[in-house]
Amino acid sequence: MEGLTLLSLLLPLLLFDTGDAKYEPNWKSIDSRPSPEWFDQAKFGIFIHWGVFSVPSFGSEWFWYYWQRNKVQVYVDFMKKNYPPDFKYQDFAPYFTAEFFNAKKWTDIFASSGAKYIVLTTKHHEGFTMWGSKTSWNWNAVDVGPKRDLVDEVATALRANSDLRLGLYHSLFEWFNPLYEQDAANKFKTNYFPTSKTLPELYELILKYKPEVLWSDGDGDAPDTYWNSTGFLAWLYNDSPVRDTVVTNDRWGYGSICNHGGYYTCSDRYQPGHLIKHKWENCMSIDRRSWGYRREAPLSDYLSIEQLVATLVETVSCGGNLLLNVGPTHDGRIAPIYEERLRQVGQWLKVNGEAIFNTTAWRAQNDSITPHIWYTSKPQEKAIFAMMLEWPSNGTVILHEPVVTQGQTQVVLLGVGTLPWQPLNPSGGLTVLLPPLPFSQMPCQWAWTLKLTGAA
């Protein structure tokens, strides 16, 4: 291949010893690596989309692309109305100030949500890096804008003040990078961009910040061979400082999504609604129309806490993790609407977290008779959890799936205590009598969990 740099020739020799390799640089070998146990148990993480796009904070984090490449009219009109004719996207960078950014305050909010890991955007498709990347001259947060290493501040606060694990998002391609555009024009028969930009950045992020989640994105319609994805992942799994604990997703080149890599994301806001064999993650945003912060977003565009809890419950019941996104402002604030939603999820998890964390999918994901009930299990405790998204108006709930035994099965409403029940029929199932609680004594406000022990 043309365009090889000295770095691309040396990295395999310096960082990848093929003689002792456990994982080889091919998908069959890479895909054979089991997901570290911590990730499956974690269930819930926080996504953070933050960058220069947070300055216009209009429409979408794809602002630059929609304005300059697609010429979407609302973006063109926005710029004409609010900025001079010669204003360039790069001119937004000095206004990405982060003067109110406090990594410890962010960490406190994330920890209050009950999440077990975070994934910070280190570089989106705009190419602006949130650390002083050695290959992103004058287009990074150390050289322009905040003039601070934002990735380091988040990583340091996270490790000093919480048990949250660090994850980093990184876009493989950049919309308007001349080297990428040159390779694309050559139908990716040259690889100037990955060898001089993408791969050095990936190695730098891993060696400097040691994340335990590496969230790759943006293949730019280029195959994994162009990105040397299997070569990089072989080093990551064999020789990197996080080789034993790191997890990665499936966005490593055109066609790899939902087929290769670590856990599957398949698509944004992926929700299969049933159990799938491979570990997966549902990445979705509190703002249903954007991942980055939008100043013009109406309240109706933000998902309610009821919707978020329902999504978390369904995701975990079907074997997935939920990665819930917030978009901070250009000056480093997490808007109150985001903070409120995260703290509300945390309040719910304080009561119901036993049915979420360290659980596995049960043989049935949702109840076949009573709608809006989702199951999880803890085989080690011989426990089944039935999460009700609606409180029955008649004071009873029918669970068709569990097989119960009089004198052995016990039903507990988490946050309240033991409840009476009756068998539904000889083949299985039960009717649970719910307590007539006043609103002030309800264990939580949005969904409720029945824990069954001594049931099959």
TrEMBL record:
GO cellular component: lysosome
EC primary class: hydrolase
Catalyzed reactions per annotation: a neolactoside IV(2)-alpha-Fuc-nLc4Cer(d18:1(4E)) + H2O = a neolactoside nLc4Cer(d18:1(4E)) + L-fucose; an alpha-L-fucoside + H2O = L-fucose + an alcohol; a neolactoside IV(2)-alpha-Fuc-nLc4Cer(d18:0) + H2O = a neolactoside nLc4Cer(d18:0) + L-fucose
PROSITE patterns documented for this protein: ALPHA_L_FUCOSIDASE
An example molecular function term from Gene Ontology annotations: alpha-L-fucosidase activity
Transmembrane segments: none
Residues in Alpha-L-fucosidase C-terminal domain copies: 365-453
Domain Glycoside hydrolase family 29 N-terminal: 20-354
Subunit structure as annotated in this protein's UniProt entry: Homotetramer.
Record's function text: Alpha-L-fucosidase is responsible for hydrolyzing the alpha-1,6-linked fucose joined to the reducing-end N-acetylglucosamine of the carbohydrate moieties of glycoproteins.
Family stated for the protein in its record: Belongs to the glycosyl hydrolase 29 family.
Name the record gives this protein: Alpha-L-fucosidase
Originating organism: Solea senegalensis (Senegalese sole)
Top-level taxonomy: Eukaryota, Metazoa, Chordata, Craniata, Vertebrata
